[in-house]
Structure formats: structure tokens, C-alpha cells
Design goal:
Strand order of the largest sheet: 4-3-2-1-5-6
Shape: globular
Largest sheet: 6 strands, parallel
Distance between the termini: 25 Å
Number of strands: 6
Number of helices: 6
């Protein structure tokens, strides 16, 4: 469980000590990524770029790790407000080429992930078969607007906030 402490519930989760437990956990929710249906030969020739924003980096890591294990080439752009908000850098670096963007320039590229993506594609001439973006809604929107003129297939994770994940709210 990767949690960013913001409000009452996340503060309580972050206060748990080793040995404490949750009454119940629901998941995983959603559907698997399309690439999990591809054969190894097909994946070996693919080049992916993942854009991970904030805690969106947590669900990016297992996907990138899986793609790496199946022979796909992966670049990952991890974005955060500042250096102290970055997560999974060491783990991700073992399975992908990692590029960092921070809003304040405290680590890596100074600016938004879209600026760094443009740097890689336009200035460095990198080519990708697909872009996968997970993070804040506004970031995903601008990644889509950035990749659209390049006709780069872009998949985003539309995870609306859920109170309990059981569907009881309708």
C-alpha cells in the first residue's frame, strides 16, 4: 500500500506501526493493461514510455517491471513537485531508463513531465510505440494533448477517487 498523507484517513494509515492491520482490503480493482495479452516476441520489439506523476508512480512500477521481464524497452518519466516527493527511483532504475522532472528543479529536469517528454521525443528523437500515463488528472490531460500531434497511442488510468471501493455508493 503506497499512501500519501493528506487528510484524516491517510494520516491514520500512515500512523500504523508494524503489526497493526486493516480490517479488510479490497482489490485489485480495474482491468489489466492491454500489453499483458501480447506474446513475448511482440513485446520484445516494442518501446514504451511511461509517465508517472506523484503516487501514480506506484502502479507504474509493477507494469514496467513486467514489461522489462518480457523484453520490452521502457523509458519512465517520473514527475513530482520536488525531490522529496519522488518515490520508486531506485527500483524503477533497475528495470527502465528513468528520467526525472520536478516542478521546482530540485532533481532532474525543471518543469512539467510534458516538457521532458517533448525533450525526449522532439529534441532527442526518441521513438515510442505507446505512452502510458498514471497520475493526477490534469497531468494525464496535458500528456494526451502533448502526444496527440505525434499520433502516439496514449493510455491513461482513469481512477476516480473511491470512498470504499465496494460500489455501495452507486
Amino acid at each position: 500500500i503506497v499512501t500519501q498523507q493528506i487528510g484524516a484517513s491517510t494520516s491514520e494509515i500512515c500512523s500504523y506501526e508494524e503489526g497493526d492491520s486493516f480490517a479488510d482490503v479490497v482489490g485489485p480493482l480495474g482491468i489489466p493493461s492491454d500489453f499483458t495479452e501480447m506474446h513475448a516476441e511482440e513485446l520484445a520489439g516494442k518501446r514504451y514510455v511511461f509517465i508517472a506523476g506523484g503516487v501514480g508512480t506506484a502502479p507504474v512500477y509493477p507494469q514496467v517491471k513486467w514489461l522489462h521481464a518480457h523484453g520490452a524497452a521502457v523509458d519512465v518519466i517520473i514527475g513530482a513537485k520536488s525531490k522529496n516527493m519522488l518515490i520508486y527511483i531506485d527500483e524503477m532504475s533497475k528495470v527502465a531508463n528513468v528520467h526525472i522532472a520536478t516542478d521546482d528543479g530540485s532533481e532532474g529536469y525543471k518543469g512539467m513531465v510534458t516538457g521532458l517528454l517533448e525533450e525526449l521525443v522532439v529534441k532527442q528523437g526518441k521513438k515510442y510505440d505507446e505512452c502510458v500515463c498514471i497520475g493526477p488528472m490534469i497531468m494525464m490531460k496535458f500528456v494526451c494533448l502533448t502526444t496527440k500531434p505525434w499520433e502516439l497511442q496514449t493510455t491513461v488510468s482513469l481512477n476516480a477517487l473511491m470512498v470504499d471501493g465496494t460500489g455501495m455508493c452507486g
